[in-house]
């Protein structure tokens, strides 16, 4: 196999704290191995025209370790295999243009940093002959094959801090405070931030809830003197027999947007308990800001491992955290699946044993 001298790196899907740390690690590690890095802008759009990419040297990535967002830009809409794109050489099938430009730019491999959607696209390009190494990114922590995605720890730390702040005002006013957190179809952020913040109820998509059970638990707290309560609701949580709350239905190649369940739970709990209730949606604040040290280290290890896999010619793979190691997984074993909270999760059992209700 001829050795690779130039690779492309891109970030796709929703941003997550730690993307810049991965880019930095990829660029520095590759450069130290004599491999040139081309930064591709806005996910696969960076392969549509030559002016959508740039050479990245260690100088270009110095100092970005601690920054949220991504210096390359990202997008979480569009499917290259079912859409056309206008190029300087006429309209083409998006995926054909990506493959054409990959070769024209003299790239030997692509490091694709993204969530489930982006990794699925990367896997499809892999099947069409593009050497791919994936890096799992998402605050939702829902990618199979890795115990952690970078970004998750930062999102949980932020949500936990928010819950701490809500605790003091909830207690002062003897109110119920409902906090809606992200996570899509998985309850990882809600579960971890809920336990970390000492919530009294945690509602997650994996356990359809009954609010009369939640209300009974909150009334109990009143009886023994804790006249306030904190309820953490994952955006994908839904009532028994009900359905997920949407801000926007799926359309074209754009996925549905979850949200609104926090306000609904808030209103219903006011009715059940007769107490004053308020709700807060943490939303995109969970994706912003500096990555925690855990995410910086994980992202750096992922970036370094991705370059190692490129050098070893291990393609159609994804780097993954299998504590204490960073390992390679086959993308085929990862894509099209969602890692949800298992019912035998130790954290779930621990929270229940402490008296936290999940509304079941
Ligand atoms: O996947 C990450 C995530 O932040 C989800 O938790 C959330 O449902 C979604 O992205 C929001 O996406 P958008 O950036 O389109 O609002």
List the helices and strands and how they pair.
Blueprint: E1 6-11, H1 19-32, E2 36-40, E3 53-56, H2 58-61, E4 84-87, E5 90-93, H3 94-104, E6 109-114, H4 116-127, E7 132-136, H5 152-173, E8 176-181, H6 188-197, E9 201-203, H7 211-223, E10 229-234, E11 246-248, E12 257-258, H8 261-273, E13 277-281, H9 293-312, E14 317-322, E15 325-330, H10 346-354
Parallel strand pairs: 1-2, 1-6, 6-7, 7-14, 8-10, 8-13, 9-10
Antiparallel strand pairs: 2-3, 4-5, 11-12, 14-15
Helix pairs in contact: 1-9, 5-6, 7-8
6-O-phosphono-beta-D-fructofuranose binds at residues 14, 76, 115, 138-140, 182-184, 235, 257-258, 287.
3D architecture notes:
The chain is of the alpha/beta class and 360 residues long. The chain has helices at residues 19-32, 58-61, 94-104, 116-127, 152-173, 188-197, 211-223, 261-273, 293-312, 346-354, and strands at 6-11, 36-40, 53-56, 84-87, 90-93, 109-114, 132-136, 176-181, 201-203, 229-234, 246-248, 257-258, 277-281, 317-322, 325-330. A 7-stranded mixed beta sheet has the order 3-2-1-6-7-14-15, with helices on both faces. Helix 5 crosses helix 6. The termini are far apart. The relative contact order is 0.17. The protein binds 6-O-phosphono-beta-D-fructofuranose.
Question: Would you kindly provide a brief summary of this structure?
Answer:
The chain has 360 residues and is α/β, with parallel strands linked by helices.
């Amino acid at each position: 196999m001829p050795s690779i001298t130039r690779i492309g790196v891109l970030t796709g899907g929703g941003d997550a704290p730690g993307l810049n740390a991965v880019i930095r690690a990829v660029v520095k590690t590759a450069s130290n191995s004599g491999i040139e890095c081309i930064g591709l802008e806005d996910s696969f759009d960076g392969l549509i025209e030559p002016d959508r990419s740039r050479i990245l040297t260690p100088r270009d990535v110095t100092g970005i370790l601690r920054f949220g967002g991504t210096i390359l830009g990202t997008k979480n809409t569009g499917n290259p295999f079912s859409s056309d794109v206008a190029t300087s050489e006429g309209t083409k099938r998006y995926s054909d243009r990506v493959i054409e430009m990959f070769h024209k730019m003299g790239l030997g491999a692509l490091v694709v940093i993204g969530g489930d959607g982006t990794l699925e696209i990367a896997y499809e390009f892999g099947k069409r002959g593009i050497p791919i190494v994936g890096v799992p990114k998402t605050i939702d922590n829902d990618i199979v094959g890795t115990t952690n995605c970078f970004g998750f720890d930062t999102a949980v730390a932020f949500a936990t801090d928010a819950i701490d702040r809500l605790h003091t005002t909830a207690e002062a006013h003897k109110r119920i405070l409902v906090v809606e957190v992200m996570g899509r179809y998985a309850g990882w952020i809600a579960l971890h931030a809920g336990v970390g913040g000492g919530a009294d109820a945690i509602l997650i998509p994996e356990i359809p809830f009954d609010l009369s059970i939640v209300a009974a638990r909150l009334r109990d707290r009143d009886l023994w003197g804790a006249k306030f309560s904190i309820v953490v609701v994952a955006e994908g949580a839904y009532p028994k027999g009900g359905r997920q709350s949407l801000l926007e239905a799926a359309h074209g190649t754009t996925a549905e947007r979850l949200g609104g369940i926090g306000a609904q739970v808030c209103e219903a709990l006011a009715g059940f308990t007769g107490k004053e209730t308020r709700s807060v949606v943490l939303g995109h604040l969970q994706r912003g800001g500096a990555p925690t040290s855990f995410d910086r280290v994980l992202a750096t290890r992922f970036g370094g491992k991705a370059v190692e896999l490129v050098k070893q010619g291990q393609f159609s793979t994804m780097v993954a955290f299998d504590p204490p190691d960073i390992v390679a997984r086959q993308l085929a074993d990862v894509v099209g699946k969602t890692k949800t909270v298992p019912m035998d999760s130790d954290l779930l059992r621990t929270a229940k044993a402490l008296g936290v209700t999940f509304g079941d």
